[in-house]
Every structure is written in C-alpha cells, then in structure tokens.
Amino acid sequence: MFPAMRRSRQALSARESEEILQRASAGVLAVAGAEGYPYAVPLNFVYAEGKLYFHCAREGHKLDALRRCPKASFCVVDEDRVVPQEYTSYFRSVIAFGTVRELTDEAEKRAAIETLARKYAPEADPADTEAEITRYWAPLCMLEMRVDCLTGKQAKELAAGLQR
C-alpha cells in the first residue's frame, strides 16, 4: 500500500522514528483541503501508544477537510542543518500516514488532552493543569490519528555517521 523508500540505506528504524515523535514539539498535518488543494497546517501534538493526538477548535478548514476525507499525513523535522560548502543539508525527519478521527467520547478526549498537557507542561501543578483543561473544555476538539505507516529518513551523511 505504501511505497518502499527509494534510498533505503537512509531509512530510520521504527524505534528511531518513534523517538523523534516522542521528543518533537511540533509537526505539520497534511490533509485533502478544499477544491482539491492540499492543506498542511503546523500543530503541536503528542505521540502515545502508536497514535498521534492534536487539539483544535470545533470548526475550521482542517476539520472540514478531515470530515470529507480522514486520511492524512503528519511530518516532523528533527534536524535540518545547512552545510553550505556541500550545497546540502543534513536532515532527519519522520512522516506518519494514517486516519484521523475526532474524539467524541468524553473519557477518551480527557485522556488525550491530559497526555498532551503532560508533554508540554511536565512540571505543572496537577491542579493548575486541571483548571486549564476545565477552562477550555467546552470549545476543545481532540483529534486522534491512528498511524498506519511510519517512515523516517536521514541524510546519507548522518546515516554514515558523519558530523561535519
């Protein structure tokens, strides 16, 4: 279903790809937008148990697109170091492909936002976190992307262990 990576020697392992999703703070969600145009939007996220979670408002272009077609991809750039003398960059990135759904079950939605909150505010007082979640609960929408395919790739120089 998903094509094999052409430069397989540059492929990251599943573990390395998941580690990138664990440490990254933002990525870009791409969906089939209006009028056939792709729509890619930067988002904060959390990766847990093979799924990506995002928060958003209850309406907008992203949700309209996902309701028409729930298939999406999500890209995270872990490293992109320009090396001018070589006319290239040393990069490392991950792309997840999957299906996105809106969490409508209150318990699922609560668990997802709490996981997201712990990622971005790990030192926060639990009472403060609960107050913030409660404050924004009514307009909050949580999305879950089930990852069907996860690929990671790095520059050939990084794959070879070069750090120029």
* Count of DSSP H/I helices: 5
State the secondary-structure class. alpha+beta
**What is the N-to-C order of secondary-structure elements (H for helix, E for strand)?**
HEEEEHEEHHEH
Placed side by side, the strands forming the largest sheet appear as: 2-1-5-6-7-4-3
Q: Which descriptor suits the 3D outline? A: globular
Point out poorly predicted stretches: none
Mean pLDDT: 91
C-alpha Rg (nearest Å)? 18 Å
> What is the count of β-strands?
7
* Main sheet attributes: strand count, strand direction, barrel closure: 7 strands, antiparallel
Helix-residue proportion: 25-40%
Strand content: 35-45%
Report the end-to-end length measured between terminal Cα atoms.
37 Å
Protein name: Pyridoxamine 5'-phosphate oxidase family protein
Pfam families: Pyridox_ox_2 (PF12900)
Describe this structure in words.
The chain is of the alpha+beta class and 164 residues long. Helices cover 29% and strands 40% of the residues. The chain has a 7-stranded antiparallel beta sheet, sandwiched between helices. The longest helix is centred in the C-terminal third of the chain and has 15 residues, at 106-120. It is globular, with a radius of gyration of 18 Å. InterPro entries: Pyridox_Oxase-rel, Split_barrel_FMN-bd. Pfam families: Pyridox_ox_2. This is Pyridoxamine 5'-phosphate oxidase family protein. It comes from Candidatus Gemmiger avicola.
Topology summary:
Layout: H1 14-23, E1 27-32, E2 38-43, E3 46-48, E4 51-57, H2 61-68, E5 71-83, E6 88-102, H3 106-120, H4 126-136, E7 140-154, H5 156-159
Antiparallel strand pairs: 1-2, 1-5, 3-4, 4-7, 5-6, 6-7
